[in-house]
Task: structure prediction
Amino acid sequence: MLNKYLSTYVLNLFSSLKISFYNFDMIPELLDCHCSFISVFENDEWNLKPGGRYFFTRNMSCLVAFAIGEKYTVGNGFHVIAAHTDSPCLKLKPKSASSKSNYLMVNVQTYGGGLWHTWFDRDLSVAGRVIVRSGDGSFLHKLVKVKRPLLRVPTLAIHLDRNVNKDGFKPNLETHLNPLLATKHDESSSESKDKSSSKDYHHPLLMQILSDELGCEVDDIASIELNICDTQPSCLGGANDEFIFSGRLDNLASSFCALRALVDSSGSKDLSDEHAIRMVALFDNEEEQNMYILAHSDCHYCICYSNVNKDGFKPNLETHLNPLLATKHDESSSESKDKSSSKDYHHPLLMQILSDELGCEVDDIASIELNICDTQPSCLGGANDEFIFSGRLDNLASSFCALRALVDSSGSKDLSDEHAIRMVALFDNEEVGSDSIQGAGAPTMFQAMRRIIDCLANSYVREGMFERAIRQSFLVSADMAHGVHPNFMDKHEEHHRPELHKGLVIKHNANQRYATSGITAFLFKEVAKIHNLPTQDFVVRNDMGCGSTIGPILASGIGIRTVDCGIPQLSMHSVREVCGKEDVDLAYKHFKAFYQTFSSVDKKLNVD
Result:
């Protein structure tokens, strides 16, 4: 059973790791729990020795960590657990700023095969990395994570889509999935209806408010003549404070200018040589008498041009609803196409939030790479606290168990009698095919294995050292598995329905969508039997397609024996997934047993 301390540690870890980059921000902590792993770099010369523990990262989203047995000799094998670090998510587009219907929106693109409907009505935020300019002209790589709910993708109300429960929720991923960032705060207006004459009754509450304002009794009010007015003060607006937002500009503005002009031109000195009479005349009721008189053609549309009160206000939402931001100044045109800063492609409000998080100026942000993430922390759930509810269980759970198992089996005592090299390889971009420099399709692990052998060989060179090592190696491909869903049991093959709390699932597929063979499954199960750990088997139904993992990619690319396995879970690829707390513990124990036991198990079966 996962103990209380480890449960808390796992939940805090899963809550913190919103994106692949953050996985590797915490790698030193994970690798330094009980024994020191030394950081090496791919572009440096390596100096390795038996008994040593090392790791390197690539792109801050791919990791290779390894511990060399004290009794390792050149040509011995690698015992590897490989997993992936990425999960389906929404990523900001290179130009993310957009505005619709008075909302500031963020343009996103889908990453991987997510259950995108689960991202609606969630409290979302952003996390990722930023390239920041430093004072000396160089650039810094920084991680950023906004913890507060910053974004939301709202669903359409049932009243506006009556058939959604019958026809299914089928959002358009281009037009319906863009989150809200903020509203544009335009001048609000109060709508008043025609008031009845003063002889009619008024609400007692209103009359009481008026009497309180006047300092009299309600019964002393014989007649009222009231207008509805907006309470919002007049203010400057627009990006450059160049607009006046106010009620009754028509025609307070003209009245003020006329009266102020008269006052400022009517001093004794101004009038001393005046032969005429200077006058201002301000009249009431112009709006009623001149309702349908047309103004000259170069003024803006107003009430005198339209029949809006009679026909109704019917704006064209495409052409009439675009808000003003500012007037266009040639020297600072926003349409320049040669901008180099990220601030020109993303909402200034978002950029300011990022700069506040990073403690830098907006102008110092040179580039951003952000994912949308859920803000809800991971937690235990169920009546018995037996479930883990979390985002990104696929494949954080496997990555954590693999790395923790390596750390906990790589102390000096553990390595003192080890003849092999224990390794963890965590790759990015599995959800989109693994074809990237940080994905399993790149020769990262192959190159690392060769460099390790070359480094340990020193001047000792024998024919086929590397090839012999590969043939003696074994890879565990760890990716989450589909637990049987009680409401959809028919989606599983009748005799292969993995359950939660029943141990790691070994995945089989005759068409090699999984890399498991009869031999590799047997060896991995033997490790479990020695340590009294349960295992389960999974095959997909013949009438359904089968997903895949990095297992076949690494097995065929390197030529290494491989078994595909995973922790059973529900809601795979949802924004919020479910697995059993017990299964995380069982996976960790199985992986640790693999490192500690596989050398002896492998000797018991000799197959070409």
Q: What stands out?
A: The first helix runs from residue 4 to 16. The first strand starts at residue 38 and ends at 39. Residues 89-159+168-184+338-374 form a domain with the Aminopeptidase i, Domain 2 fold (CATH 2.30.250.10). The two ends are 39 Å apart (CA to CA).
